[in-house]
Design goal:
- The chain is an alpha/beta fold.
- The chain has an 8-stranded parallel sheet.
- The protein has one domain: TIM Barrel (Alpha-Beta Barrel), CATH 3.20.20.140.
- It is built from 9 helices and 8 strands.
- Helix 4 links the parallel strand 4 and strand 5.
Length: 275
């Protein structure tokens, strides 16, 4: 049963929309359930996890409204200002929405790489744990040591690393630091990872095989029981297509056992997000 662990909807100019910008012409338009349904009908998609793309409460509220009436969306990862004084109350409000499964603070866009370990976030993180919500970590290599600190402090907080922590496929810079960071986080049982977003980290001139060592590392570090496939659609359209990435991910994973493939392409996502 194919489940996409990471996809987006957005409306240009609405719900706090700030990205993608007009220069990204391939994805600078509205995307919604009908677009995903068309893809899913061709590929046998059983469902998806809808992830926020805008750092705005209006976006999260809109996604939850859409998801309530969309059977293909099995869960939602929203956004909340975790540093705001009212964060615990907002988190409690969001947690009452049936399909909310987690929150994503978009760490890659913040000026402070260590933001996630600020003491001022403790009330929000306490609320997330109390309400059974997971943390999607949108991070780059410099964030990994700080995410490790958080994970060690908060063993009860389920964490999933988005897009394999965006490995340096195009440049190779900080590849050793990325590997160390990924391996250290993978040693903690509450940390999971998404096999997603890798095509857009490669340069246009690179062959798909350039992703191979990074995919192998993620599979080796997390195993299929803590690694979940995601499309990152429609961002994916900047570098490939849905069906092509699905086939490539299966090939590069090196997995052949049906149980392992079932976990990577659906089972692990279902378990992590309590679907």
């Amino acid at each position: 049963m194919l489940i996409d662990a990471h996809q987006h909807f957005w409306r240009v100019g609405r719900n706090g929309f700030a990205w993608p910008t007009p220069d990204l012409a391939a994805i600078h338009r509205d995307f919604g359930p009908a677009d995903l349904e068309a893809i899913g009908a061709r590929l046998g998609l059983a469902g998806s996890v809808l992830v926020q793309s805008q750092a705005d409460d209006r976006d999260t509220d809109w996604l939850l409204e859409l998801a309530a009436d969309e059977p293909l969306v099995l869960g939602v990862v929203g956004w909340a200002d975790l540093g705001a004084p009212g964060a615990p109350a907002r988190i409690a409000e969001l947690a009452r929405r049936p399909k909310l499964r987690g929150l994503r603070p978009m760490l890659q866009n913040l000026d402070d790489d260590a933001w996630i370990v600020r003491p001022s976030l403790d009330p929000a993180l306490d609320a997330m744990i109390a309400h059974g919500l997971s943390l999607d970590a949108l991070v780059l290599t410099p964030h990994l040591p700080h995410l490790l600190t958080l994970a060690r402090r908060r063993p009860d907080l389920a964490i999933v690393i988005d897009h394999g922590a965006k490995p340096p496929i195009a440049t190779g810079e900080q590849a050793e630091a990325w590997t160390r960071g990924v391996d250290a986080l993978a040693a903690l049982p509450q940390v999971f990872c998404k096999l997603s977003g890798l095509l857009t980290e490669a340069s246009p001139s690179q062959a798909p095989d350039a992703l191979a060592p990074y995919v192998r590392r993620l599979v080796s570090a997390f195993g299929p029981d803590r690694l979940m496939w995601g499309s990152d659609w429609p961002v994916l359209d900047l570098a490939g297509d849905y069906g092509g990435w699905l086939v490539l991910a299966k090939s590069l994973s090196g997995l052949t056992d049906p149980a392992d493939l079932a976990a990577l392409f659906g089972g692990t996502c279902r378990r992590f997000y309590r679907i």
